[in-house]
Design brief:
three-stranded antiparallel sheet; 8 strands
C-alpha cells in the first residue's frame, strides 16, 4: 500500500464513522444479550409444563430468530440493500434447499418427535439396535450416551421410522426371571422360596405383588416365570441381589437347576467288526 493509499485509508475512518461503527457494535451486543435474556425468561416461565426438549428447541428458535433480526438491522445500518440481500438469499436458499433436503427431513422429524413426547432427555431408551440414555434432542438428531459411556448420534428421520422402546418411562418396572428346576424338585417349596426372597428384599415392591407362573414341562425340567416389581433406578441392585438369593436358596434346599443334556447312542460295533 502506497503512502497516498494509506492516507486515504486513514481519511476514510473519520471520527463520525468510527463512532457510528461503535454505536452499531454496542447496539448489536446489547440486542444479543436482550435476546438471550428473553429466551431464558420464556424457558423458565412460559414453558413450565413443557418437556425438556421442547424448552431447548424454543430456546434455540428464539436465539436464532433474534440473531437474524439483529443481523438484518446491522446490515441495514451499514447501508446494505435489503432487497438485494433478500434476492441473493432467495437464490442461495433455493440452492441450499435442493442440497439439504435430508436436513429438512431431519428438522421436520425432530418437530414430530418433540410433539409426540415418546421420550425425554434423561430417559433410557432403545432405538433400533442402540440402547442408552437420551443426552439431547435437537432439530437434526438425537444424541445417546450408552451405558458403557459411548456417544451415539442418530438422525431424526431415521428415528421417526424406527421402533422406540422407552425403558424408564414409568417409575416402576417388572423384572422377569425365567427359571427351570428338575422334575424331582419340590415345586411348592421352590415357589415359597422365591416369594420369600421377594418379601425379604427391601428393593422389591410389595405392590404390585410378585408374580409366579408355571409355564411348561420342558425337555430338561419344569419351566416357570418368577417376576418382581421395583423402582426403575434400582435395576442393577435388584438384578444382582435377587439372582444371588435364588442361587443360594435353591442350593441350601437341594433344588436342582438342570442344564440341557444331550445323550448320543452309537450302534453296536461287533457286527461291523465281524464284517470287516
Amino acid at each position: 500500500m502506497t503512502g497516498i493509499d494509506f492516507d486515504q485509508f486513514l481519511a476514510y475512518f473519520t471520527t463520525d464513522k468510527v463512532m457510528h461503527v461503535l454505536r452499531i457494535f454496542l447496539f448489536a451486543l446489547a440486542s444479543y444479550l436482550l435476546v438471550r435474556m428473553i429466551a431464558v425468561i420464556v424457558r423458565r416461565t412460559l414453558t413450565k409444563n413443557a418437556s425438556e426438549q421442547s424448552k431447548v428447541l424454543i430456546h434455540k428458535m428464539i436465539i436464532y430468530t433474534g440473531v437474524a433480526i439483529i443481523l438484518i438491522v446491522v446490515l441495514n445500518s451499514f447501508g446494505v440493500s435489503l432487497s438485494a440481500l433478500l434476492g441473493a438469499a432467495g437464490v442461495l436458499g433455493v440452492a441450499l434447499g435442493i442440497a439439504s433436503q435430508k436436513s429438512l427431513g431431519n428438522v421436520i422429524s425432530g418437530l414430530f418427535l418433540v410433539s409426540d413426547r415418546t421420550f425425554e432427555v434423561g430417559d433410557a431408551v432403545k432405538i433400533g439396535s442402540f440402547v442408552g440414555v437420551v443426552h439431547s434432542l435437537d432439530l437434526l438428531s438425537v444424541k445417546l450416551r450408552t451405558f458403557d459411556n459411548t456417544f451415539i448420534r442418530i438422525p431424526n428421520d431415521q428415528i421417526i421410522s424406527t421402533e422406540i422402546t422407552n425403558i424408564t418411562r414409568f417409575p416402576i418396572r417388572r423384572m422377569d426371571f425365567n427359571l427351570r428346576v428338575a422334575y424331582s424338585a419340590d415345586l411348592e417349596l421352590a415357589r415359597d422360596l422365591l416369594l420369600d426372597i421377594a418379601e425379604k428384599n427391601p428393593l422389591c415392591l410389595r405392590e404390585p405383588e410378585p408374580f409366579f407362573l408355571f409355564k411348561e414341562f420342558g425337555s430338561s425340567g419344569i419351566e416357570f416365570l418368577f417376576a418382581i416389581w421395583f423402582e426403575k433406578s434400582s435395576y442393577v441392585a435388584v438384578k444382582n441381589s435377587v439372582f444371588l438369593s435364588i442361587r443360594q436358596a435353591f442350593a441350601e434346599h437341594d433344588i436342582e437347576i438342570p442344564i440341557m443334556q444331550v445323550k448320543v447312542w452309537y450302534p453296536e460295533t461287533e457286527g461291523r467288526e465281524a464284517a470287516l
